[in-house]
Specification:
The chain is mainly β. The protein contains 1 helix and 8 strands; from the N terminus they run αββββββββ. The strands form 3 sheets. The chain has a 4-stranded antiparallel β-sheet with strand order 4-3-7-8, with no helix packed on it. A two-stranded antiparallel ribbon has the order 1-6.
């Protein structure tokens, strides 16, 4: 009985050290971005509109600052999009994340490479380490 109790305490201590200690290990996750865009401001690119239009949306992790952003992927502007479009959604390829809070952003990109302000479309996510031996 006493050996069982000590084993449980050891396992609990190990779990706490994994969750809160310096042994935070990265894990791979796909991230789904869902956002809205008002194409009345800048239209989506099309065969008829090739300049001053939204070609694609870029997905970033910007926790270390915009100048140190990491691109997670992109998605073309929806074909034929006009007006206010809700729930534009894309899931990234797997990405290695460290546990903790991360700031994500989406930008709208024009054909000339110009992107919208990354501060205008952001969210915070939290990756939790749940490994317990």
């Amino acid at each position: 009985m006493r050996k069982t109790i000590l084993t449980l305490i050891l396992v609990a201590a190990l779990c706490v050290s994994l969750l809160y200690g310096d042994t935070k290990k990265p894990s791979t996750h796909r991230t789904t971005f869902t956002f809205d865009y008002d194409f009345r401001v800048t239209p989506a690119c099309s065969p008829a509109v090739k300049k001053e239009c939204i070609q694609q949306f870029n997905l970033y992790e910007i926790s270390a600052g915009i100048s140190k952003r990491m691109r997670l992927g992109s998605i073309p502007a929806p074909v034929g999009a006009t007006g206010y479009v809700k729930d534009i959604s894309v899931t990234t390829d797997p990405f290695l994340w460290f546990p903790g809070k991360h700031k994500l952003a989406v930008s709208a990109q024009m054909p000339n490479g110009q992107e919208s302000d990354l501060n205008q479309c952001t969210t915070i996510i939290e990756i939790r380490e749940v490994v317990c031996l």
